[in-house]
Amino acid sequence: MSVLDTVAPDVLAAPFFVRGQVVEGGAVRHRSRDLGADFATPEIELNAVVTPRSELPPLLDVKLSEIIDFLVETSERLTLSRNPHLQQCLELLSATNPLPLRVVENLYREAPHYMSRAALEGMIASNFSRPEALDGWVKRSDPNGNQGAVRAFPPRMIHMLAGNSPAGCISSIAQGALVKAVNLFKMPSSDPFTCVAVLRTMAEIDPEHPVVKSMSAIYWRGGDAQIEGILYRPQYFDRIVAWGGGDAINNVIRYLGPGIQLVSFDPKSSISMIGRETFASDASIAEAAERAAQDTTVYNQEACLASRFIFAEGEEADIERFCAKLAERLALDRAYASAMAPPLSLETGEEVEILQAMGELKVWGGKDGRGMVILSDEPVDFHPSNKTSNVVRVKRLEDAVRHVNVATQTIGIWPPERKGALRDSLAAAGGQRICRLGTANLHVSGGPHDAMYPLERFVKWIGDDDIIVGESNPVFAAE
């Protein structure tokens, strides 16, 4: 039976996955935030999604190498052309997710990379100086000769999945498995389908595998105190891993206390910086404009790493030539962006028109979603979106550092030779990642995310100190 047939024809069915079992049903009706589509889920059985602390984590004694083997096998089955669960998700997501279907298809085709052997092993190597601590107790000693052991113990985690990237759950599933966690994934209303599709694929390999038994995926409306007031307790979970907007993060914060920690990938904004060398020729302007367009349009500017402000160092006439070229490049179809994004909101469009009439800014492009470039002397007060780029004139790139803060995620710089002189100041101001312009959506495998190595923060670092008290121990020696 198709999942589309399990509820009323005008309502999409979103089943749950609970510790190896698919749970069907449409008892609870919801509405997606972005597109307003109705979908239905089963009722949440809280006792089923909470693993008692009296039970050891299913993955505790499974070797990391075996977990990686299982994830790699899963990745081979996530090929879109051969995976009916992902294929069905495409149909469902067209009703709930604002990304164009073609972009979602490209994200799904990239999905197996998140569980490739190279990606998984690189993640472990970069996050843990002693990966063997994931597999058992590792002996250690201090300068006084005291002996002990340490283990990266599996956590119990709730993952609040992001709604702006349907394939992002695959990375979260892989991370949860690598740290041997007991995982509960809260799916977003814009995509209450993909996570279950991936977990179903895993279960078809081996429904009794400890990785499968460590995974549950359900949906509830964010802020539902009847659910969160119970689940967000330290007797049930150690970590809440939150991807989401400011309201979602603030909602989680009120539940925090001793024993439960928040690992937050909270909302970020990204920028670009362009030096005067860019304007040496028409060709160099064209190259910079194309690179800036690539960084601006990722997921139609819904991604945190998508650039929203470009700080340009140069003469006004040169910068205006760049703006005109950038507006042209924003209007293209790309692998992770569409030629036509949703149009600007009425409020933002009116604000742009008023400021333009007052002579405070110049505009290229339009409000219809094909892209707009706004040139100003100071950053605009609103949040550029829907393929809108605010180009800000600066005398020197160093002057742009004052606009960087702890919410600045990615900073693309052109030409790349300018990075070295800027990166320490950008980091001190709060910036979290520096890259070449045009590569915001590319990453050096295993690098930090939001200025941290997340897997190292997920695990519970447990110490077993075996100190022998006596005169030979200088800590306890008599005076």
TrEMBL record:
Check the record and name the Pfam families matching this protein.
LuxC
InterPro entries to which the protein is assigned, alphabetical = Ald_DH/histidinol_DH, CoA_reduct_LuxC
Catalytic activity reads: a long-chain fatty aldehyde + NADP(+) + CoA = a long-chain fatty acyl-CoA + NADPH + H(+)
Highest taxon, organism lineage: Bacteria
Record keywords, A-Z: NADP, Oxidoreductase
EC assignment: 1.2.1.50
Protein's recorded name: Acyl-CoA reductase
Q: Please report the organism this UniProt entry assigns to the protein.
A: Novosphingobium album (ex Liu et al. 2023)
